[in-house]
């Protein structure tokens, strides 16, 4: 296993396709990853938030990673999302990623128990790293307090980085609070700070950030990539905000899957893993009409026909 370089650029938080039986569709997963890389995405992240990771078992997530590797996705183009509510599951997923040749792991904090102290968050990651017991590990801390309910504060990141130099490699900051991101940049000079909230990308890159791990890259990778340029066009920033303003009127994973189904003409993409539910036909028509009106080129009637169930 070669020494992994820090993640930079445009990484996609992959959607996870399901078959008619509700199980992971391995062929579509591999094809989607290959397609993203062919479109210029620098790497892919299976089973994160956009990929509904917490809704899949340890066995399913291990099998999905193995599928991507067998499909020819190079380990250095993969960041395995290995967070779980049970630390034993997170350890098992992280060990599996390392054994598979993928030392980079994106790891959520424990996300069932709320109101955790900074000490509890630090100890969780410390215990996980020590249980894995492999100096090759590269941890990307995943700050997404909206669904997780658990913040990873910059002082905790700094403490972990000091305690585990080299192993703590970066942070995916999806909190949507740029002051938090700016403090990470100030305290974590050696770390890759990556935005999960796409509108912050231009400010992040100007401040010395590393790039993004984002869901929009599943659908419009060029739009996300444009914000990584030194001087992005104002229209590109406005388009990202417009897209999010529309999509976030709906549950975002079913909305992303509906758009993917319309783009590909493949209705299998519509289905999320329970407890999430697909958008209704009326919701899809409304979504596609709004996107078309904003210039995203997904006609409501065309989208409805293609993504009919």
Q: Your description of this structure?
A:
With 309 residues, this protein is α/β, with parallel strands linked by helices. The protein has two domains: 9-229, TIM Barrel (Alpha-Beta Barrel); 249-309, no CATH class. The protein contains 13 helices and eight strands. It has helices at residues 26-38, 58-70, 87-99, 118-132, 145-148, 154-163, 178-187, 201-206, 221-226, 234-247, 252-264, 281-293, 300-306, and strands at 9-13, 43-45, 80-81, 104-107, 138-143, 168-173, 192-195, 211-214. An eight-stranded parallel β-sheet has the order 2-1-8-7-6-5-4-3. Helix 1 (26-38) links the parallel strand 1 (9-13) and strand 2 (43-45). Helix 3 (87-99) crosses helix 4, helix 6 (154-163) packs parallel to helix 7 and helix 12 packs antiparallel against helix 13. InterPro entries: Aldolase_TIM, DapA-like, Schiff_base-form_aldolases_CS. Keywords: Lyase, Schiff base. Pyruvate binds at residues 50, 213. Pfam families: DHDPS.
Summary of the model, kept short:
Helix content is 44%, strand content 11%. The chain is an alpha/beta fold and 309 residues long. An eight-stranded parallel β-sheet has the order 2-1-8-7-6-5-4-3.
Q: C-alpha Rg, in Å? A: 19 Å
Which H/E pattern describes the elements?
EHEHEHEHEHHEHEHEHHHHH
Give the N-terminus to C-terminus distance in angstroms. 44 Å
Query: What is the CATH class designation of the largest domain?
Result: Alpha Beta
The CATH architecture category of the largest domain equals Alpha-Beta Barrel
Proportion of residues in extended strands:
5-15%
Sequence stretches where pLDDT stays below 50 over 5 or more residues: 299-309
Number of strands: 8
Q: Structural class per helix/strand content?
A: alpha/beta
Helix amount: 40-55%
Number of domains: 2
Shape estimate: globular
């Amino acid at each position: 296993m070669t020494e992994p370089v820090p993640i930079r650029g445009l990484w996609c938080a992959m959607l996870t396709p399901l078959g008619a039986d509700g199980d992971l569709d391995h062929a579509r997963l591999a094809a989607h990853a290959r397609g993203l890389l062919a479109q210029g995405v620098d790497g892919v992240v299976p089973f994160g938030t956009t990929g509904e990771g917490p809704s899949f078992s340890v066995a399913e997530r291990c099998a999905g990673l193995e599928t991507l590797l067998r499909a020819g996705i190079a380990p250095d183009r993969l960041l395995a999302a290995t967070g779980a509510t049970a630390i034993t599951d997170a350890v098992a997923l992280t060990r599996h990623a390392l054994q598979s040749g993928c030392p980079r792991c994106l790891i959520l904090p424990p996300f069932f128990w709320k109101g955790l102290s900074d000490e509890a968050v630090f100890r969780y990651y410390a215990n996980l790293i020590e249980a894995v017991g492999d100096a090759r590990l590269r941890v990307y801390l995943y700050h997404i307090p909206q669904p997780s309910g658990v913040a990873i504060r910059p002082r905790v990141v700094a403490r972990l980085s000091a305690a585990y130099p080299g192993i703590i490699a970066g942070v995916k900051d999806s909190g949507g609070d740029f002051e938090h991101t700016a403090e990470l940049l100030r305290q974590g000079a050696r770390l890759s700070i990556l935005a999960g909230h796409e509108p912050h990308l231009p400010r992040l890159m100007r401040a010395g950030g590393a790039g993004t791990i984002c869901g929009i890259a599943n659908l419009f990778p060029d739009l996300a990539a444009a914000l990584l340029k030194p001087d992005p066009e104002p229209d590109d920033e406005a388009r990202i905000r417009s897209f999010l303003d529309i999509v976030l009127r709906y549950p975002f994973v079913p909305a992303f899957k509906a758009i993917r189904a319309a783009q590909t003409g493949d209705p299998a993409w519509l289905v999320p893993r329970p407890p999430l539910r697909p958008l209704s036909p009326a919701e899809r028509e409304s979504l596609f009409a709004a996107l078309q009106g904003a210039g995203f080129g997904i006609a409501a009637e065309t989208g409805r026909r293609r993504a009919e169930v």
